Fold each of these.
Amino acid sequence: MEALVQVKEQIKIFVQECNDERSLELLDLLATGKMLRSKLILKIAGETPEALRLCAVVEMIHAASLLHDDVIDEADTRRGKPSINALFDNKTAIMFGDILYSKAFTELSQMDRKIAYNVANAVTLLSIGEMHDVALTDTFNSDYKKYLDMIYKKTASLIEASAASAAILAGRDEEKYALYGKNLGLAFQMIDDILDITQDSATLGKPAMLDFVEGKVTIPYLLLHQRLGDKQKLENLYKKELTQEESDWIKHQMEVTDALADSISQAQALGNEAINVLHDENNPELIMIMKAMIEREF
Amino acid sequence: MEALVQVKEQIKIFVQECNDERSLELLDLLATGKMLRSKLILKIAGETPEALRLCAVVEMIHAASLLHDDVIDEADTRRGKPSINALFDNKTAIMFGDILYSKAFTELSQMDRKIAYNVANAVTLLSIGEMHDVALTDTFNSDYKKYLDMIYKKTASLIEASAASAAILAGRDEEKYALYGKNLGLAFQMIDDILDITQDSATLGKPAMLDFVEGKVTIPYLLLHQRLGDKQKLENLYKKELTQEESDWIKHQMEVTDALADSISQAQALGNEAINVLHDENNPELIMIMKAMIEREF
């Protein structure tokens, strides 16, 4: 998509405006993702100069949050490339994240007030979500509401704000698109959490079932925990390196109790709710994005 | 000053709006500084609700930058209290910094557009200044312009933006107050750098002449380096633990070459320029703040 190249060009222009050689070098080293948020903005608002600037701002914020996440999670790789903290050090990743955040906010301050509020508020939620994500790995969390609130803040809030802001740019119904973005984000995270269990390590590019080892009690584990008569066995495996037998037992129990199938259903229900809300909006591409996400193989 | 208590109350309200218990606990653990930026804003704009909100935003940004600085510098203390990274860990300091930054930007997005731009742009400069500060400790920097640019970005830019924004709130001459704030910040940093040499460790609360050991070539060292016939001896002492004899030699050379006296003169010249610019503004308190800073004992 030609427009995504223009978004990358706009990001580069914004970073060039910072007059800092090092930041430009670091920008070149960032692995580009799927640019989901930009795709969403462009499909809602069209490929206008304003929309391209909003895309650049949101992608810079997203990149900044990942730079800090990788320091917090001590991650060596990001999208198959070495992370900035691994290539250099933590401080470089922290400082470059702060530069991207603040330059994005500077540009945001010159946009529509409601858009600036939406996006800045989403970053607050995202930062609090990151705090909760870390806190929830302290002990086994069996509270589904806490999980849902955390993934809303950490993953869905910026996607929600992107969609809502794009709707404002296009003069469309902000609330409908906000709900679409929110549900897309929630479904995306749930499916990511499900794939951690159902896919093998070769496909994932990391060890399978790593979430639970790292202390993350995601939706399939939450549903399983609710449904197990003897919860102790599952709790005992929490944050442990799992043997083949143990991971097989978890997967088997997730099938027997329908924990896995019901997790998939919940993600799909969120997707379908969003599809219904956009029914009269005549935006078949957004429907396709959501369908591609929820109607995949698990 | 009663109004500074109100600023702290406003910060607490903003953090409460984040609905995150942990953030409120962490806020309580932050050591309060002199609140120089707030004092400046209140003396320029008066103690209005708008000014108090701007103060809270600027103090939150300043606190966030210190939280990240302490991680970057691996600092154990801040204003005589244990730093957040020392009390807990780096990730807590990074995440709480991100929460304070983003909540401040969210509030800023609802203020006057020019104020929002001024402050957000200052944070970009501040973040780049931090990057340069770290980079300048790699090798002996003998370029005075690089030092001046770095302290402008890292220390003066947010003070400049605070003063300019307060002037906008009060309908006063933005440029005059921007210059005052910029020069106050530059003089403040230069004097801090001079005191590192002239004061003993008991007064400083840390080892004297630590800057040079840590790789910071500040203004007195820069002037000394320019004036020494044999520069090699000074360069050889860079980033070394200094013996008493070595630090005595540096101080003696700084006196013989007038490097120290001229550093003080440069800080004073910046202060006097600001005092002159505000001559017709009828704000004796701002003149007093600057005089108190530059007319002290060194």
Amino acid sequence: MNEMTAISFVRQNRERFLSEYREFLAIPSISTLPEHTSDIQRAAEWLAAGLRRCGMTEVEILPTAGAPVVHAEWLNAPGKPTVLVYGHYDVQPVDPLDEWHSDPFAAEIRDDCIYARGASDMKGQIAALLFSLEALAGQGPFPVNLRFLLEGEEEIGSPHLAAFIGTHRDRLACDVVLNCDAGIHAPDHPSIVYALRGLAYFELEVRGPQKDLHSGMFGGSIRNPIHVLCELIAGMHDAQGRVTLPGFYDAVRELDAEERAQLARAPYSDAQWLAMTGAPGLFGETGYSTIERVGARPTLDVNGIWGGFTGQGAKTVLPARASAKISMRLVADQKPEDIHGQLEAYLRTHAPKEITWTLRRHSSGPGAIMDRHSPYMRAAVDALRTVFGAEPFFKREGGSVPVVGLMQQMLGVDSIMLGFALPDDGIHGPNERQHLPTLFKGVETYIRFLGSL
Amino acid sequence: MNEMTAISFVRQNRERFLSEYREFLAIPSISTLPEHTSDIQRAAEWLAAGLRRCGMTEVEILPTAGAPVVHAEWLNAPGKPTVLVYGHYDVQPVDPLDEWHSDPFAAEIRDDCIYARGASDMKGQIAALLFSLEALAGQGPFPVNLRFLLEGEEEIGSPHLAAFIGTHRDRLACDVVLNCDAGIHAPDHPSIVYALRGLAYFELEVRGPQKDLHSGMFGGSIRNPIHVLCELIAGMHDAQGRVTLPGFYDAVRELDAEERAQLARAPYSDAQWLAMTGAPGLFGETGYSTIERVGARPTLDVNGIWGGFTGQGAKTVLPARASAKISMRLVADQKPEDIHGQLEAYLRTHAPKEITWTLRRHSSGPGAIMDRHSPYMRAAVDALRTVFGAEPFFKREGGSVPVVGLMQQMLGVDSIMLGFALPDDGIHGPNERQHLPTLFKGVETYIRFLGSL
């Protein structure tokens, strides 16, 4: 197999690849919103067609209790490892829509970037992998055995993925997972993630009066549910930025000196980080660097809050209820179930008797840590080094990719997190984008990675 | 003038009065929402037509920079006092709409009550006064001189009323104001309000990152604006339920022992109060009774809060901003301008440097206290006693009627707060209602009050 020929093919077909990528981005496959169910189906069909074009011998859209899984196989490389490619074709909602500078599904290109919901997370990464396969397909048989699991519910916490893996375990057997839902540190600084944070996501509702009351007639005589919710949230952190839930840090695997030293070598500065956020200042748990705070420490964030009158003008209401979405990012070896118990214990202790509260669980998943010394990890690092011309560094990722823990538990394999998103792509927010030169280097990296296994 | 004949007339025309009242309630004259501007105009026209039918000699719809004022006069009772009737024909928004058991503008009657937005606050009270005038009109000349000021912006804080009074001072000259935007304690316990709380209403926005961020990638490294907003709100009260803004209580006129004893005689219990709210328990400033907390003590309530993802499901966003509507109820002699300064001082002291904040002022107005011993107050008390067959008691009102302070300042007259809302009418919330037997007693009370001046 001639990798250089495959890479030339990619360079010659760049414009066509780009227009296929934009076609994929135009499908608003938002898994959170029921009105987009048919778009989810369209995105799955678009992918299945793409896999067939690349020469996969079995391509199926398999049902689950939710969004379907796109599965495909090519198993004609005896003696070679089997790589299970994981990705997701669903995307986050687009609100606040008025903050987008262009239609989130028009995939506008400005200054080397493509702006669209899902551009970076993660239709761009799947598209890059498809292009690498099409390029390899022209060079004879694929260098490895391939399997695909492309799901449509990652953004809602993959609620049916464990059941799917359980049912189709034989179709998913592999030596390693290539998880494309990943990124690198910077266009000139490749990196590879070896640890991921887990997630525990909750919704808390505080109820006071049976109905909204007039704040003049009743204000001062009953507890305002918004006040109580704010007090409960305010109490969830101490002055050192530590989470106060009882036992929250008990299971946390502390960093050792060697790993801290390695993390500190990352080509990264607080000034850059601050510039990416646009916030007036950085802030976090006392005693840890920014990169440690997001990669190796568990955190708690309120993702949304609402209650009372939120329209224009002034309405003097004392509301009946107030709610918040509260999620924790977990590190090894915290268990989502334990976090749920800790949050309930906190609420039982601190909620005053003049209100009632209910706690709902949304998605959750444990964190994960991978072996930095496996042959697959080394192949990925080598491919990155060759294509980007710089030494990749190992990185802990603050986000959650629950499927990584699931694959470890259910298939007994590690995942190689190889994808080409950038930290300032604005995923989940308005004006999400993908840096195109980085994406096309990604196509070449996939070619070299698969070719060297 | 024969009051009994007028009262018989009311009893004979009850069904017609009721259908006119429902016609008035069917007009969605919501002053907060720009899309209801034409409904505001329709409500003003409905009132003007009603006043003409009652025999007012001058009826005009006078423009302001906002909603028009309905003005009317009848000045043919030489030697008699001039009563300026004040009311408002605008209503609050209806959200949350899904908690209404019937259309808020269909004015459904169930179990002696009429359910509609504005039924109690205060279209019912204006309608009752109109019916009393129609009944009196059949008995010869009116017993007093009458003027009317019916505005359409009370629910948004009467932003153009002071200018209107300034321009039309000569058309509003009077000996006393009859302010119908009022209520009584219970159907069998008439009361009359002699003190009102003022209002200072603000909107606070806290901004962190420039755009919404992924809570996994950035969570733990920057301050979450929702957390900061919650901490700021949580800090606005201490453990004794006192407001912590610097200097908040400095100007408060404290209750003396005599007034506290009088307030304590009100036919009222904490159990009733609790039942009206449906909350699990009462709560307020340590050292004061419930009736003192709502009538004689200043308070702070968050009326609304919002930020981040508030839709269905789970979105892992670290939001760029969070906002709250925050209002204070003031008592004599607190000044709204001082409160604004205190809130700004609090925010300057407590807001952390990793966020920015902006504070907007909405409506505001001072509290007011009236002379309990004037002849007008005595006439109102006598009318209530006769119609309800029970001794009325004096009451402090927790709500705000800023026009009362304005009339004191600009026209030099006290207001008699005579209206027939009940504390559990649910004004400003879903399923607002008016108790009809009380309303028709109100019509009779107005007849006796005006007849005895």
